[in-house]
Structures are given as C-alpha cells and as structure tokens.
Amino acid sequence: MQTVFYARVSTTEQTIEHQQRQAEDAGHRFDRVFTDDGESGINKKLADRPAGKEMLGYLRAGDILVVRWIDRLGRNYEDVTSNIRELLERGVIIKTIINRMTFDGSTTNPMQKAVRDALVAFMSAMAQAQGEATKIAQRAGIEHAKVFAGEVKYKGRKPAYNRQQLQAVLDGLGQNIGAMALAKQLELSRSTIYRIKDDPAAAEKALAIWGA
C-alpha cells in the first residue's frame, strides 16, 4: 500500500508547494507525488494531463490518493465522477485535505455506497459550477477594467489581497469553507472575505485597475 499525492495548479499565482504543504500539515506523508503545473482548462480531462495520466496508471488496490479537494481530479462533472468511480472500483482510497473527507471503495453495504456516490456526484457538480463561476467573475472584472482604464482618475483603495489570495478565497467559498477559517488561513480580514464573496467581479476589477 502506498500513499500518493496529486496536485494541479492552473495559474502562476497558485503553487504546487502550497498544496503539498497543506497536505503535510494535515498529517500526510507520501511515497509518491504527481504534479501538473500550468495545466489549465475546465474541460481538459485528468487523463489528458501528463501527471494525471501517469497517476491514474500508477494507483493500485489498497493505495491512498490524497488531493487538496475533489476538483483537483477535474473541473468537469463527468470527468471527476468517472475518475473517482474508476479509482474506487479499483480499490483506491481517496482523501481530501479540505473538509478531511474519505471515499473508500471497499464498502459493500448498498446504503453506504448510495450515500457515498450521491456525495461524490454533489461535490463534482459543485467543482464544475465553482470553476465556471470563477472564470465568469474573472472575465467580467478584467473586461470592465479594460473598458474604463483610460477614464480612471481615482483607483480607489488598493486591494488588501493579491491574486493568489483572491483565487484561494473564491475556491474556498465554493468549497463551503467559512469566512473566519479563510480569513485565518489567508491572513485577511473577514470583511475582505465578505466583500469578495458579495461581488467577485468587483474584486477582480480592483486587482486589474491596480495592475496586481
């Protein structure tokens, strides 16, 4: 039995090291680490990502796969659910850092399997919805800033967050992490978290105006 960690980042503001440090802080130690860096695309399948493909071929029955959250296994509903289903049927145990969830394919109890599968489906749908919402908010903020770039006389208060923190807040909110927990984790005020939550496009616009 081996414990495997898979990390994926899609922007320069995210880091593989941060995801792995979170996992290690949660008490995990790894025999093998697979990473896809800069592999973006909401419709790009896990099996089409270099490390994702290698990881899927590497895992065996009894192995434990650790990921930051379920969305690391794909942002597309069909891709996430099919990958998880295949791994569980293979006998792989999947653990998430966020929410500390465990999906075990060894259970034979019909009720437990039904609850597990329903939860996987719900979380996979959330992953895709969050990915699409984040992209829409980012595009809206950037485009709005471009349109009014030449007219901005007063930029307003400089954002208290950087782009990495903004992305982390949006991801965390989509994963139902509370404002207090996010504020502590990212060293931001709760009011900043709430402002981002209430208007993510405006938060993105502020970064774009300030060139952050």
Give an overview of the whole structure.
With 212 residues, the protein is an alpha/beta fold. It folds into 2 domains: 3-106, Rossmann fold (3-Layer(aba) Sandwich); 126-209, no CATH class. Helix content is 52%, strand content 11%. The chain is built from 8 helices and 5 strands. It has a 5-stranded mixed beta sheet, sandwiched between helices. A hairpin with a 5-residue loop joins β4 (93-96) and β5 (102-104). α3 (77-90) packs antiparallel against α4, α4 (110-147) packs across α8 and α7 crosses α8 (200-209). The radius of gyration is 19 Å and the shape is elongated. The N and C termini lie far apart (45 Å). The relative contact order is 0.11. The mean pLDDT is 81.
Short description:
This protein is an alpha/beta fold. The protein folds into 2 domains: 3-106, Resolvase, N-terminal catalytic domain (Rossmann fold); 126-209, no CATH class. The chain has helices spanning 16-25, 50-58, 77-90, 110-147, 163-174, 179-186, 190-198, 200-209, and strands at 3-9, 32-37, 64-67, 93-96, 102-104.
